[in-house]
């Protein structure tokens, strides 16, 4: 809502407060101010001119040479390109030295050899937007009224010597969507009671509204108040300047005197009105009802609307003539030919209007006011005021009486509170006098007893209905910045991280210490990417009405997002990328919210170690990533239950370089190299990834750690090397050695793997160190030898090892 | 030549040998050749058997003096040589200490996580719990339970991604308030919580809008919680995030789930309130929204609003990071360009 300081000054005395100070106070007590503009500060040397002559320039098809009286000794010659310039007009002239919007400076100049001493201005050149300029001045200059004084500051005439305060009105303060509402608010701040000039309505006693219309309402819940007046014998003309400029400054385009009055009254009272061309209604009956399914109406904008039973319509007894509260019909709107106007002032059920405006995508100044509520006390006042003004501007007469259906009266609601409650919830130390004064400033009647403050809230503040509303009023008028600062002093409760939160933080630190940086990717992605790398086959969760294909489905893995990140980096010459992410993946569940599962995933590409003066490059490979995963699982205390199983199932990964990760047989994740085809498609080099479901570890603490005494006796070790078939897995070999290794075998370490020269094709040579320890005694050579011998035998028997 | 003269001669010869020795090994050889069991002094003293008994003590004394002196000279020379050898070793081992160290690769915490964790830690220290919720929520918890019924005009403030008419991407972290409130046992103490997480709005991504961003919300519900407590808590938070010398200012605002509702400005951390491009010449920067929990929110969760009340506040880590570090495009947070991420490696 854009508030004119001058307009506000009509009901309040603003002489002591500048526009900027007022804006600051409004911001601090209730309504956010988006900005204050003072257009005259940008403009200067702009006067009223009188066009004496205007003649088409000899060799031009659009330029006119005019002679204009500007209040100087001699009239001046100005070249003007506007098609609507004519002798006799009063116009806005920017003299040489003038400044227009955007810093444009006017100088004496020559156009096609003809001297021009300034410029005749359009409204756009004075800073008005195209959308608010009257249609007839859209392509040309603006014509001032005949009585404008030549040579005077033209800005006063078009209302630019004013300040405009842009209010950002929250849905609860729809009462401030009107000048009167803002006047009450500013009045409370300035400790003034706003004074509004009354309406001088004279009705034609010889004619009754009942002879014109017969109003009925199908359902009073949809339409609690419907009122209509009739104004006859009108000549519909353009509005006077004072009315046009009020509308333009509020962002509304002047149309004609009837429509302009309805808009003006809406701005003044917050009450939207609608004017029908009475003769076009073709009926005395006005019935407000729900539309029938597939009924249609051509609205003012010329669009045929298909209606449903969710739309409320005004009908002429048979057919819809307006979409209640949203937009009028094309066939019944006021035109230059209109003689008689039927003027509607009503209250419609807000959610109904909201739904209609939303479903037809027809949000307007009117509909937004109906949606947010109205002051039910001024439905009649607004109607009377508008009728009187339309009659006076159009030389018509208001027919006596109002046709109406009223099922709801304005309510003066009583809300109570106590001084203890006020001070107890605000942390203040207010006295009863201070509180009373605040309510008086707001214009709320109040009565005080020892233990209760009873406040009568006028209908213009329909947002106030409960005690908390009163507390807010007291707090904001008292001033939030006067409230003291304390901290809650309540019973102490422990504040600590849960196991899951600690584990999540630990995992983050762990991954960072392994060289991976934390990424946060988008959870919404394309359908294809959402399903990629998924660990199970469940259905995707899709948005019902996405903004774009790029973000329409919820991810089922973190890897597809991480891969996007890698691609983004590599494409920007960052060749070494190491990222991890901890986040949710989403799977559909029947009759329930989607299941959200926390995963950790990582991706590495490029080098682990770069070539340097003393190091040689090491590139990322499967085992680098596996090492990170294994160490993480080991620090979680779960590595013993983990197995890595070769897998060819995931189409995104290299079928020969991928392992499923199982924990106690449960499939929890995957490690693998990106499929070379996918890598090529995405312009990536060797890229290795992992993704693990963290939920099993977040759910329960795996706290099985217990201290083992430091060995007092030395251990011993044996090396073994053998050749096996290349299809034999390391894990199978480990299983055999672990099973038969004997009670002193502590650890087994692979120290060599060899294929190539001296080894038969299809075979590989493996070499392990087996470490033995007896914690209670020095190991005897014979014991170890016999245990080691069993391992050798088992390897020969079970994996056909050829011991070397 | 008498034994005495022989001893004196040997000493002189030994000193010459020692003088010309240039390694610890030479010194050892000299020591053996003069003082060893088969050394020159021993062999000279073999002549003692021909010396008269009264002369023997004199020669003995002389022999000891020669031994002592020779030992002293040897030791001195050895120490000197050892020192020189060490010196040579140190010189030969000298490296260019200005050469770069070996590579250590360390990842860094995402800047949004850093901001959220700082806030979490501040409130953990004051006895708050961290409670996370679902990113996909029901319309009921996301809107209705925080006092935003169907067709409430304030729903326009948040454009929503719906999955079905009843299921949506949460538009704020507030549904966690309702879910936590309805389960909280107030006989076990007040509810003090912090909820960080991702939220979603139906928005087109550009430099200042993102369909995905973060929120962190706090709530305290107990008996006798005042708006002054909210103000004190917010002051603490503002100082933690933007520095000790910051002040805050509260402005009335509207959120359906709080009343009174406030918007909170912090005095500009760049210009200190003088007015600059960061604060758009106002001296203040809007950083969060807050208010006293609306009684409807409490009642809908089965909490007696005549007995219990409290406050809630919420802020956007993305916005905070943009302000604090001058990040000019919100999309940086989600594209994970390493050139962006690694700028925030200052700490974990």
UniProtKB/TrEMBL annotation, chain A:
Cofactor binding note from Swiss-Prot or TrEMBL: Binds 2 magnesium ions per tetramer.
Binding site for Mg(2+): 463, 469, 472-473
GO MF term set: ATP binding; catalytic activity, acting on a protein; magnesium ion binding; phenylalanine-tRNA ligase activity; transferase activity; tRNA binding
GO terms for cellular component: phenylalanine-tRNA ligase complex
Reaction it catalyzes: tRNA(Phe) + L-phenylalanine + ATP = L-phenylalanyl-tRNA(Phe) + AMP + diphosphate + H(+)
Assembly description: Tetramer of two alpha and two beta subunits.
Protein name: Phenylalanine--tRNA ligase beta subunit
Source organism per UniProt: Alkalibacterium pelagium
UniProtKB/TrEMBL annotation, chain B:
Location in or out of the cell: Cytoplasm
Enzyme Commission number(s): 6.1.1.20
Transmembrane segments: none
Molecular function terms from GO: ATP binding; catalytic activity, acting on a protein; magnesium ion binding; phenylalanine-tRNA ligase activity; transferase activity; tRNA binding
Reactions that this protein is recorded to catalyse: tRNA(Phe) + L-phenylalanine + ATP = L-phenylalanyl-tRNA(Phe) + AMP + diphosphate + H(+)
Gene3D superfamilies from the UniProt entry: Bira Bifunctional Protein, Domain 2 (3.30.930.10)
GO cellular component: cytoplasm
GO BP, sorted A to Z: phenylalanyl-tRNA aminoacylation
InterPro entries: aa-tRNA-synth_II (IPR006195), aa-tRNA-synth_II/BPL/LPL (IPR045864), Phe-tRNA-synth_IIc_asu (IPR004529), Phe-tRNA_ligase_II_N (IPR004188), Phe_tRNA_ligase_alpha1_bac (IPR022911), Phenylalanyl-tRNA_Synthase (IPR002319), tRNA-bd_arm (IPR010978)
Keyword Metal-binding: yes
Key word Cytoplasm present: yes
Note describing how the cofactor binds: Binds 2 magnesium ions per tetramer.
Annotated signal sequence range: none
Residues binding Mg(2+), per UniProt: 259
Keyword terms: Aminoacyl-tRNA synthetase, ATP-binding, Cytoplasm, Ligase, Magnesium, Metal-binding, Nucleotide-binding, Protein biosynthesis
Residue stretches making up the Aminoacyl-transfer RNA synthetases class-II family profile domain: 111-323
Highest taxon above the source species: Bacteria
Cofactor dependency: Mg(2+)
Assembly: Tetramer of two alpha and two beta subunits.
Family: Belongs to the class-II aminoacyl-tRNA synthetase family. Phe-tRNA synthetase alpha subunit type 1 subfamily.
Protein name in the entry: Phenylalanine--tRNA ligase alpha subunit
Annotated organism of origin: Alkalibacterium pelagium
């Amino acid at each position: 809502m854009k508030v004119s300081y001058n307009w506000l000054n009509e009901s309040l005395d603003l002489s002591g407060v500048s526009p900027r100070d007022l804006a600051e106070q409004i911001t601090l007590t209730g309504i956010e101010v988006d900005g204050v503009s003072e257009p005259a500060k940008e403009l200067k040397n702009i006067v009223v001119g009188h066009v004496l002559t205007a003649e088409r320039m000899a060799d031009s098809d659009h330029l006119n040479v005019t002679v204009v009286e500007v209040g100087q000794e001699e009239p001046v010659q100005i070249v003007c390109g506007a098609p609507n310039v004519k002798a006799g007009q009063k116009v806005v002239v920017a003299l040489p030295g003038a400044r227009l919007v955007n810093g444009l400076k006017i100088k004496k100049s020559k156009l096609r050899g003809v001297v021009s001493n300034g410029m005749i201005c359009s409204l756009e050149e004075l800073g008005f937007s195209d959308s608010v300029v009257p249609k007839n001045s859209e392509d040309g200059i603006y014509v001032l009224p005949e009585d404008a004084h030549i040579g005077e500051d033209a800005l006063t005439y078009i209302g630019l010597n004013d300040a405009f305060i842009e209010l950002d009105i929250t849905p609860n303060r729809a009462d401030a969507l009107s000048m009167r509402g803002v006047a009450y608010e500013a009045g409370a701040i300035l400790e003034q009671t706003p004074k509004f000039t009354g309406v001088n309505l004279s009705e034609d006693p010889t004619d009754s509204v009942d002879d014109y219309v017969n109003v009925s309402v199908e359902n009073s819940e949809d339409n609690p108040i419907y009122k209509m007046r009739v104004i006859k014998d009108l000549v519909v003309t353009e509005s006077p300047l004072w009315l046009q400029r009020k509308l333009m400054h509020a962002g509304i385009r002047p149309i004609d005197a009837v429509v302009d009055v309805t808009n003006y009254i809406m701005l003044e009272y917050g009450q939207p009105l609608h004017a029908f061309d009475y003769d076009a209604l073709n009926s005395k009956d006005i019935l407000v009802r729900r539309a029938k399914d597939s009924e249609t109406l051509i609205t003012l904008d010329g669009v045929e609307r298909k209606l449903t039973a969710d739309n409320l319509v005004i009908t002429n007894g048979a057919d819809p003539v307006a979409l209640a509260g949203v937009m009028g019909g094309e066939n019944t709107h006021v035109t230059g030919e209109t003689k008689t106007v039927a003027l509607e002032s009503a209250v419609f059920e807000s959610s109904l209007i909201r739904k209609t405006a939303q479903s037809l995508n027809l949000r307007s100044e009117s509909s937004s006011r109906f949606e947010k509520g109205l002051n039910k006390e001024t439905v009649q006042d607004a109607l009377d005021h508008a009728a009187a003004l339309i009659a006076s501007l159009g030389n018509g007469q208001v027919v006596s009486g109002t046709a109406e259906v009223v099922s709801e009266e304005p309510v003066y609601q009583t809300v109570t509170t106590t001084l203890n409650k006020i001070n107890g919830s605000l942390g203040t130390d207010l006295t009863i006098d201070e509180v009373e004064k605040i309510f008086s400033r707001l214009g709320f009647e109040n009565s005080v007893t020892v233990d209760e403050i009873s406040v009568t809230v006028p209908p213009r503040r329909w947002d106030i209905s409960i005690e908390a509303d009163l507390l807010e009023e007291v707090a904001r008028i008292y001033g939030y910045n006067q409230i003291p600062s304390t901290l809650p002093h309540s019973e102490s409760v422990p504040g600590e991280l849960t196991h899951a939160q600690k584990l999540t933080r630990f995992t983050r630190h762990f991954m960072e210490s392994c060289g991976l940086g934390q990424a946060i990717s988008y959870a919404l992605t394309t359908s294809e990417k959402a399903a990629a790398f998924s660990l199970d086959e469940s259905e995707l969760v899709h948005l019902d009405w996405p903004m774009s294909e790029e973000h329409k489905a919820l991810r089922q893995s973190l890897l597809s997002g991480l891969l996007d990140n890698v691609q983004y980096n590599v494409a920007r010459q960052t060749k070494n990328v190491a990222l991890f992410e901890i986040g949710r993946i989403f799977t559909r569940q029947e009759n329930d919210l989607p299941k959200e599962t926390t995963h950790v995933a990582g991706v590495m590409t490029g080098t682990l170690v770069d070539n340097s003066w003393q190091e040689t490059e090491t590139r990322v490979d499967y085992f680098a990533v596996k090492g990170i995963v294994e160490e993480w699982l080991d620090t979680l205390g779960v590595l013993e239950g983990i197995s890595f199983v070769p897998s060819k199932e995931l189409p995104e990964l290299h079928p020969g370089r991928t392992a499923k990760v199982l924990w106690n047989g449960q499939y929890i994740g995957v490690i693998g190299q990106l499929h070379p085809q996918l890598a090529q498609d995405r312009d990536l080099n060797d890229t290795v990834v992992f993704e693990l479901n963290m939920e099993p570890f977040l759910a329960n603490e795996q706290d099985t750690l217990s201290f083992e005494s430091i060995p007092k006796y030395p251990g011993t070790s044996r090396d073994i090397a053998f050749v096996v078939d290349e299809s034999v897995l390391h894990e199978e070999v480990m299983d055999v050695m672990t099973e038969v290794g004997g009670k002193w075998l502590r650890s087994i370490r692979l120290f060599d793997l060899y294929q190539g020269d001296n080894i038969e094709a299809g075979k590989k040579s493996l070499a392990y160190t087996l470490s033995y320890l007896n914690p209670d005694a020095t190991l005897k050579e014979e014991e170890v030898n016999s245990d080691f011998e069993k391992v050798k035998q088992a390897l020969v028997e079970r994996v056909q090892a050829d011991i070397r | 030549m008498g034994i005495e003269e022989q001893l004196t001669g040997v000493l002189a010869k030994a000193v010459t040998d020692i003088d010309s020795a240039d390694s610890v090994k030479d010194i050892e050889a000299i020591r053996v050749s003069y003082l060893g069991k088969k050394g020159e002094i021993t062999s000279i003293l073999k002549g003692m058997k021909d010396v008269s008994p009264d002369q023997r003590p004199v020669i003995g004394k002389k022999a000891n003096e020669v031994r002592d002196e020779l030992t002293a000279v040897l030791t001195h020379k050895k120490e000197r040589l050892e020192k020189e050898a060490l010196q040579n070793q140190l010189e030969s081992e000298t490296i260019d200490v200005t050469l770069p160290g070996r590579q250590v690769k360390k990842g860094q915490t995402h800047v949004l996580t850093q901001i959220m964790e700082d806030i979490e830690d501040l409130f953990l220290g004051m006895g708050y719990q961290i409670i996370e919720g679902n990113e996909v929520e029901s319309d009921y918890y996301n809107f209705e339970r925080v006092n935003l019924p169907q067709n409430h005009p304030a729903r326009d403030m948040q454009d929503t991604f719906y999955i079905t008419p009843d299921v949506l991407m949460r538009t704020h972290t507030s549904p966690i308030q309702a879910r936590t409130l309805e389960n909280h046992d107030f006989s076990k103490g007040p509810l003090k919580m912090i909820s960080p997480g991702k939220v979603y709005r139906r928005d087109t991504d550009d430099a200042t809008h993102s369909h995905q961003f973060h929120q962190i919300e706090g709530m305290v519900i107990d008996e006798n919680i005042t708006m002054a407590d909210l103000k004190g808590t917010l002051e603490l938070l503002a100082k933690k995030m933007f520095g000790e010398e910051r002040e805050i200012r509260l402005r009335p605002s509207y959120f359906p789930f709080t009343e009174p509702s406030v918007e909170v400005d912090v005095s500009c951390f760049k210009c200190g309130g003088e007015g600059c491009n960061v604060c758009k010449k106002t001296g203040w920067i809007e950083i969060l929204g807050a208010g006293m929990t609306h009684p409807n929110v409490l009642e809908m969760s089965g909490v007696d609003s005549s007995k219990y009340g409290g406050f809630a506040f919420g802020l956007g880590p993305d916005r905070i990071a943009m302000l604090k570090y001058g990040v000019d495009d919100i999309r940086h947070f989600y594209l994970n360009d390493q050139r962006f991420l690694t700028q925030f490696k200052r700490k974990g």
